[in-house]
């Protein structure tokens, strides 16, 4: 996409406070009360009255209750929310049968063909059709929605967030107006720019899209080429304007399920949760007729810390047993695990199963007894489960499985750089994992039954005897009066010992100071070199000149290294390699 396309019309529509809106629709008495869907452990979503008190989604329930004592908690009912989502999508499909779903409560619609067919392809027609769709949703479902209308999906998404709740924003298809709007927009508002990328950009003093365009050279040096193109195009208001091409790769790049629960510690409890998520993920993959190459296991603690393990395979996965078997490998890699509040299983790098001709599919696997053995290093099996901070009851609540369908953005490659990816190219690796697990299990069972071996017992006994002798000698030495010390040790020996220690310390200090000075000189020279480079780059305002300058500097450095290597080979800095003494 070399030029900005402004001839198409996209609408992004987003349901307002979706889960809470469904509950308020079914119970109108909650309309003027602060409502939170969730429990004392975690809040899924809130209505706008609760948000005035500072209660937000992904917040622990007991904190929300402190901020708003009269907050009304409602247990999530996910089957009901899926039914409402299906009804929402059926209404939208009237206007665009190829609509792109983004989760349960959001969607992208290409209204270009509908507007042309109904002779409404003008500014008033676009505003009217968006209003009509929102009114139809309210009449059929009793809930409100916000919409954004623009020439591409990214701009439509940004516009949909400007007049929330129950509003809409239309951006005229004029290049000057689009650039003027984008230049004042904070970079965090670009869909796909998360907290990590925002932090990196703020380190370069880039806070708005205008800063990003002006400092494109610094962005090019900092990010990958793919992420650089995404960021610069987004800052200029340029994005895809067509539906995802149906060439086997699906538009939805990942599919996941997650489960929240009270703190657990035992390995078999983690394994049961994993198996339940694997079964749910298989049913969703079968329903959507997809398969994937990457399996991701995610944990979230009560301190909001995230731990992620993932594997990328040469073949596509699709069955429950595959999710279970390889999910256990990921669980064993992450073990031991502290008390967590959420576990998630996600499938990514997906492909349509209906177009699997010539595609390598992973063969079916079976769960063996070796797969069910607990790895070593876990917490004590008799450890009691801790109770939730805000609830003293002993009744275990039923786990809540949440579904997530996510879209991929190029800039997320930076955020996902710390994933633990492990590619499996040969079934022998899988066999090694099984053998290691079996070996650890046998060692654990042997120790539980027979205790430590004879050698280890002798070693422990010897260590105890040495410790007891040392403790006795220390006690006897402490009992000797201070004025008898010189007589026992001898003054001359004491002085010699002190002199030896001082000499050794002086030598060590001199060596340490010399090595430190040498290293500091190296780092200072390197830092001066890079500071000069950065100053040269920062002076360049034109993006293309900056990129060419970067390449010239790289080429100069390479040529300099090649020249030095030639000089060394030719013998300029010493005896040549071909020299042989007579």
From TrEMBL:
Superkingdom of the source species: Eukaryota
Record-linked CDD domains: PolY_Pol_IV_kappa
Annotated GO MF terms: damaged DNA binding; DNA-directed DNA polymerase activity; metal ion binding
GO cellular component, one term: nucleus
Listed Basic and acidic residues bias regions: 483-496, 559-569
Keyword DNA damage carried by entry: yes
Catalytic activity from the UniProt record: DNA(n) + a 2'-deoxyribonucleoside 5'-triphosphate = DNA(n+1) + diphosphate
Top enzyme category: transferase
UniProt protein name: DNA polymerase kappa
Organism: Stylonychia lemnae
Gene this protein is translated from: Contig11901.g12735
């Amino acid at each position: 996409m070399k030029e900005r396309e402004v001839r198409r019309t996209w609408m992004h529509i987003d349901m307002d406070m979706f889960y809470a809106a469904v509950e308020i629709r079914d119970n109108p008495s909650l309309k003027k009360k602060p409502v939170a869907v969730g429990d004392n452990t975690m809040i899924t979503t809130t209505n706008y009255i609760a948000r005035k008190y500072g209660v937000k989604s992904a917040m622990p329930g007991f904190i929300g209750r402190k901020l708003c004592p009269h907050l009304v908690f409602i247990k999530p009912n996910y089957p009901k929310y899926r039914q409402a989502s299906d009804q929402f999508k059926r209404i939208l499909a009237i206007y665009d049968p190829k609509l792109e779903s983004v989760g349960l409560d959001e969607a992208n619609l290409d209204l270009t063909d509908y507007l042309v067919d109904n002779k409404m392809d003008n500014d008033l027609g676009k505003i009217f059709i968006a209003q009509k769709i929102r009114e139809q949703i309210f009449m059929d479902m009793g809930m409100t929605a916000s919409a954004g209308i623009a020439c591409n999906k990214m701009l439509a998404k940004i516009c949909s967030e400007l007049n929330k709740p129950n509003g809409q924003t239309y951006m005229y298809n004029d290049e000057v107006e689009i650039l003027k709007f984008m230049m004042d927009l904070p970079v965090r508002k670009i869909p796909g720019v998360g907290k990590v990328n925002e932090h990196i950009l703020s380190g370069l003093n880039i806070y708005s899209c205008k800063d990003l365009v002006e400092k494109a050279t610094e962005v090019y040096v900092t990010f990958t080429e793919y992420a650089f193109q995404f960021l610069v195009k987004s800052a200029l208001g340029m994005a895809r304007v067509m539906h995802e091409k149906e060439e086997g790769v699906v538009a939805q790049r990942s599919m996941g399920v997650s489960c929240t629960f009270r703190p657990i510690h035992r390995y078999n409890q983690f394994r049961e949760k994993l198996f339940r998520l694997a079964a749910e993920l298989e049913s969703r993959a079968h329903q959507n007729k997809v398969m994937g190459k990457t399996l991701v296991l995610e944990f979230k603690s009560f301190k909001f810390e995230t731990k992620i393990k993932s594997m990328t395979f040469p073949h596509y996965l699709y069955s429950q047993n595959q999710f279970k078997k390889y999910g256990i490998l990921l669980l064993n890699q992450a073990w031991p695990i502290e008390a967590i509040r959420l576990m998630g299983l996600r499938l990514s790098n997906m492909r349509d199963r209906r177009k699997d001709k010539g595609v390598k599919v992973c063969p079916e696997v079976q769960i063996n007894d070796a797969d069910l053995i607990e790895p070593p290093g876990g917490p004590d099996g008799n450890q009691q489960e801790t109770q939730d901070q805000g609830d003293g009851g002993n009744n275990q609540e039923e786990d809540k499985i949440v579904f997530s369908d996510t879209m991929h953005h190029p800039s997320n490659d930076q955020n996902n750089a710390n994933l633990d990816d492990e590619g499996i190219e040969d079934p022998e690796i899988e066999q090694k994992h099984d053998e290691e697990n079996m070996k650890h299990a046998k060692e654990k069972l042997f120790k539980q039954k027979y205790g430590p071996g004879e050698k280890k017992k002798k070693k422990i006994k010897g260590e105890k005897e040495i410790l007891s002798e040392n403790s006795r000698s220390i006690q006897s030495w402490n009992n000797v009066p201070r004025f008898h010390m010189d007589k026992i040790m001898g003054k001359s020996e004491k002085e010699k010992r002190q002199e030896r220690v001082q000499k050794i310390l002086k030598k060590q200090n001199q060596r340490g100071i010399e090595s430190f000075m040498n290293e500091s000189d190296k780092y200072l020279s390197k830092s001066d070199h890079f500071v000069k480079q950065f100053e040269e780059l920062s002076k360049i305002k034109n993006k293309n000149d900056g990129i060419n300058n970067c390449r010239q500097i790289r080429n100069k450095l390479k040529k300099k290294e090649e020249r030095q290597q030639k000089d060394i080979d030719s013998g300029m800095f010493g005896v040549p390699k071909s020299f042989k003494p007579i």
